[in-house]
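[SOLVED] Need 3D model of a three-part complex

Original post:
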Amino acid sequence: MSDPASDFALGSLLLALLGGAMRVSTPFLFVSLGECITETAGRINLGLEGILVFGAMSGYGVSYLTGSPWLGILAAGCCGTLFGLLHGVLCSLPKVNDIAVGIALMLFGTGLAFFLGKPLIQPQAPMLPPLNLGGWSDDPQVRSALRINVLLPIGLVLAFVLQWALVSTRAGLVLRLVGDNAAAARALGYPVVPIRIAATAAGGFLAGVGGAFLSLYYPGSWNEGLSSGQGLMAVALVIFARWNPVRCALAALLFGAAGALGPALQSQGITSGYYLFNAAPYVLTLALMAASCTPGRILAGAPGELSLGNR
Amino acid sequence: MSQSNRPFNRRDALRMLGAGGAAAAAQMLPFGIGNVLAAGKLTVGVLYVGPRDDFGYNQAQAQAAAIIKQMPGVKVVEEEKVPETVAVQKSIEAMINQDGASLIFATSFGYFDPHVLKMAAKYPNVRFAHCGGLWTQGKHPANVASYFGYIDECEYLDGMAAAAASKTKKLGFIAAKPIPQVLRNINAFLLGARAVDPKATVRVIFTGDWALPVKEAEAANSLIDQGVDVLTCHVDSPKVVVQIAERRGIYSCGYHASQAALAPKGYLTGAEWDWQTPYTSLVKAAMEGKPMVNFLRGGLKEGFVKPSAFGPAVSAEARAKSTAVKDKMVKGEFVIFKGPLNDNTGKVAIASGVSHAQQDPVLEDMKYLVDGVIGQV
Amino acid sequence: MKSAWQLAAPFAPVSAAIVAAALLFALFLLVQGAAPLQALELVIQGAFGSAFAWQNTLSRAAPIMLTALCVALPARAGLVIIGGEGALALGALAAAMVPVVGAGWPAYPVLALMALAGFAAGGAWMALVAWLRHARGMNETISSLLLAYIGIALFNFLVEGALRDPASLNKPSTPPIGELYAIGPMPGFDVHWGLAWGLVVCALAWLVMRHTVFGFSVGVAGGNPRAAQMAGLPVGMLLIASCFLGGGCAGLAGMLEVAAVHGSANASLLAGYGYAGILVSFASRHHPLGIIAGAILVGGIGASGSLLQRRLDLPDAATLVLQGTLFLALLAFETLNRKGLRRV
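Solution:
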């Protein structure tokens, strides 16, 4: 008779959460940064889920064919850019709704990825190598928690760079102006539509890279159940993070850590109620939003041209 | 708005499910089933709940479908990723009406009730084979058959190989849901491990669904972080679990189909289905017009399940031990579940002197984890 | 002549879109080495080519009509709701519990109570979204998505825990509702009565939203909340009511899945109807009657995908590609529409 409680260790649980954040949050990070750029320019692309899945497939495929996971990442980003361009151009036509196109794009991207990805389920592609930041520790759990993917630090740095660029560079100011007040941007002579298309394409690139992370690092294989809605959730996290790249990064890490709660508790023997533990990331996000929102300021920080409800 | 109250007014229409369905079936039948049979040809429809090449559950079924395709006179039509909704019924009907199928393999467990049962009542001349061992005499129609295997025999052998290879004696099991089939596999795995090393334990993580790669990966990593050094699983596609085990340098045992190619170093052995046995016998019976055998079930002896070939990490001693037990199982001399056996809350699960052979229906109702398994049901 | 042209005009973009999507799909198949013409023929044959094809299509379409309303009704109030799957799950669960409590009661009251329970549970879940927005200022798109995940977790937790029928061994389910309370097929047409319910509810939604004071008020609250407030409209209540009705429709879809298809509540119910509804609602411009057409289209593609797999050995994903292409085309050709898109 093993008593689960005696196995339980808080330190170990916290380490597991840290490890979970390191492992799981990267796709959320990249997709939400991408969506952050797109939404800052005043467009919503809910299709990033489809781009994520297509990125996962194309990244895996190119890595398999060329033997280089880095080429896979690049290919995934390029495919994502193409999908982003498609969304950007379609939504530039008058009377075309960006949310709806995004949802159709989600189906389209997922469908194409599944269709073209059938021959890729069986073969094994070369994976991205991990970065071992935990070499200083003798504790295997610490080492495993700090065995991270190189895309994570890249994504974190990108979040700070984006934050700085949006606030302090001319390009960032223009992007925000286009997203906040298209008429004013037009009056100042900025090409609103091309800027929005470019922003959507850039968002697509990052979402594609986020997808390649899934297939080339973690969990690290191509199959059709790979995403389970992570792209959609990442888009929602942008609203949670109030269109702020650094907060997007925090939200992604928090969400990843909360997602590790269920498996971590279960590996220590607490297996009842696992559905509820597994819902922890959603409950946590909801609770944090409920606590931080203020009535009357529904979308504080939201770009003015965004068609997300009314303000 | 003349229709607005209809659903509430047509009292009888709401309950015509059984009778009305059968009447409609009689009208639908002349779509070429009779002459297909007469010519010694057979069209077989196969439905999968997931993709055919998933390195797991569906692949094991598709491999058997590929084998019956080679039989003379047999035509196979397949449909994958059919959700367990009305889509199952409509796809089955389409196979019957549009392709003239007269034998249907409904391979997902969830297809049986209500979908296969409804279709079997509606098309009494079509044979339905369902994977899962649910058919009951007197309760279910004669044109339905269940096929299933005693895969816990292979799980027991897996457990033996796992405990022999493990250094920490902590084994990990990633499972979808705590249902009897799954619990039986976990328990058999533990009992096999304990047969080799009485100190071995099995830690369980339930993911909550049959195909959740990221959660399965998280579960695998959590278990490895807890010191587990052999992983196995009961989910639809073991691919992710086996790959992560290999990448982190620990051992793994496969499930459903062979995942040996995914883990050349750490793959010990695995529990595989061998569906060609029931598939070919059901197809033969249909072609010869013999009555349907409604309950097909077997283990290693009958060729319904098979272990994967041993990987390089399994020592000669472990191989010999495992093979000895396997030989006993093939002869029908080995009982996995026998008393005294406690569950992991300290209650008696099987009393001393009681022994449940494979066919014992008590085992179909397993609701406990045996002592040595860390986890709650 | 002119009036006929005017009548046909709104359908021109739709026809153009369908032709464009067919061409694109054929091109895609050609590149993949499949037979494009045969495929298109099979699509039409599989979806609408025979009485059986129609039954196949409409059976698949029925639940989507209702889940699409879960997007369309709140959209009238200016809300973007994407969490219908959660309302469907909880509606199904609530409905499945009614026959457990009221075992032995006559069929009609129980069915009515099941519908009410499903509607109320789904409605309450979505009303929570509107309340969070109104009272806490929380964005409804994200909260509805989060609540969908939470609702599904709750559904699974209860179905595999407290509400599980102990006899449902390997397929955890609530106790079976029994033959007495099952909804059967419509006479002479092998589609369950859920289709009629879907059609009727869509029509009712159209009447309520476009032809009543309530619907008008919701529209005003959605179009210009400040003006609505000034005009003395109870904006918060209107938002909550529209979400309640929308969520109720999704809950009703769940109830129908229980009563007409599954016979109990279990995880097989959650097949993505809630998400299909989002697409259908947006593509139909949130028009309740347009939703009927959109749902039939989605159902038809599902039905024809089944035929494509069996005849041409195409992967199941061909269905998704066709659906994605078709809806992208439909939305893109929106731009040719004379009447502008109603502001969501």
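Edit: Chain B touches chain A through 51 residues (CB under 8 Å).
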